[in-house]
Amino acid sequence: MHLRNSKIIVIKIGSSLLVDQKRKIRKKWLTSFAKDIKKLKTKNKKIIIVSSGAIALGCKKMNYNKFNLRVDKSQAIASVGQIELMNLFSQTFSKFNLNISQILLTLDDTEERRRSINAKRTFENLFQLDYIPIVNENDTIATSEIKYGDNDRLASRVAQITNADTLILLSDVDGLFTKNPKKFKDAKLIKRVNNLSKDIKDIDIKGMTEYGSGGMNTKLEAAKICNLSGCNMIIANGLYLNPLIQIEKNDNCTWFISKTSKLHARKKWIISSISPKGELVIDDGAKKALISGKSLLAAGIKKVSGKFNKGDHIKILDNKKKEYARGLSSFSSEEINKIMGRHSNEIREILGYISKSEVVHKDDMVEI
Question: Residue 344 to residues 168, 269, 357: CA-CA distances in angstroms?
Fold first, then answer.
């Protein structure tokens, strides 16, 4: 397996890679990481970074001990640390002409369909603008009930939302071993996991939870999410300089290979949605456009049935009232009733605000 086959790559880095045990920022490491990102960008890869470190950097700045912090105190410290974190990335990445942006997510942002569509569009627009999104859990507002609890699972959700090809979890070990390598010298690195449930059933995962910020359990949870999304995942050692080049050069890591195609995973996600909230009847011209792989525009809609919100699951019927497709609506039924049959350039004037031109985007649509 090689990263060269991946168009969209999500990379998760833990706080221990940014700040060492003596609370010193690992500037040399971050510079080498930025060089790796630059190389991937020159090969037209779209990169997303999921980074921990806000609380660690906040504690460093305010001279607090990270351990035994109450939730409300850690939220306040995280808000200080977010600025430190983004400044650190900005100063380092700008040396390589890499533009960065910040996206803060909570669990609800990825679990709720409408919000996850909005997040997906934001990522897509940032790619078009040639910016690298740096994602973190929104620690300043996330309570223990709505937290991911670790950035491994957050990264897997980001990979799922963005239709990523590969998720790289940079850890403090080379990958998944047959036993805990810190206790057993005969522990062997597993380089390929093709079937998650079969290939790991004989491994003592409990004995490995001491390494990696979320432990090996959360990394395997992330692998499950990725595999169901048609995304491959890598656990690799991030402590080396140029950690991404090391993956390509030495392949000294664990690959979790997904057997599901991305398209199939997305279709399954849309089709498995609870019963559709409404219907759109389209004309023959719109149906032809959909058959040729285009999105559904307002001009081709003849009738709206049902009451639904933006992001809801709807049916798309042809002129003969036969179901042609299902999809996720970019508008509410109320909005579509106002704009149906009209050209996209009229939408702003009709609704009084700027909105998308596609009523159902081609990526959010499945032919029946």
Answer: 39, 28, 5
Cβ-in-10-Å burial (0-12, 13-18, 19+) of 49 comes to buried
Please give the single-letter amino acid code of residue 45.
K
Q: Are residues 168 and 281 in the same domain?
A: no
CB 306 within 8 A of CB 278: yes
> How far apart are the C-alpha atoms of 309 and 113, rounded to whole Å?
11
Q: How many angstroms separate the Cα of 14 from the Cα of each of 35, 53, 136, 215, 317?
A: 18, 7, 11, 12, 47
What backbone phi and psi angles, to 5 degrees, belong to 281?
Answer: -100, 130
Residue 1 CB: number of other CB atoms within 10 A? 15
The residue out of 231, 262, 293 marking a domain boundary is 262
Helix axes 151-161, 113-128, angle to 10 degrees: 80
Domain match, 249 and 298 both: no
Relative to beta strand 232-237, strand 192-193 is unpaired
3-state secondary structure of 184: coil
Q: How many domains does the chain have?
A: 2
Residues 156 and 83 in one domain: yes
E strand map for the chain: 8-13, 46-51, 99-105, 131-137, 166-171, 192-193, 232-237, 254-256, 278-282, 296-297, 301-305, 313-317, 323-328, 358-360, 365-367
Phi first, then psi: give them for residue 83, nearest 5 degrees.
Answer: -65, -45
**Is there a domain that residue 267 lies in?**
no
Centroid of chain to Cα 262: 13
C-alpha to C-alpha distances, 279 to 186, 197, 322, 327, 354, nearest whole angstrom: 60, 39, 11, 10, 24
Alpha carbon distance 33, 202 (integer Å): 35
Q: What are phi and psi of 229, to 5 degrees?
A: -95, 0
Please list the rounded mean pLDDT of every run of 10 residues in the chain (368 residues): 87 90 90 97 96 86 77 82 93 97 82 75 95 84 52 90 94 86 85 84 59 67 87 94 92 90 72 78 96 96 95 92 92 96 94 89 87
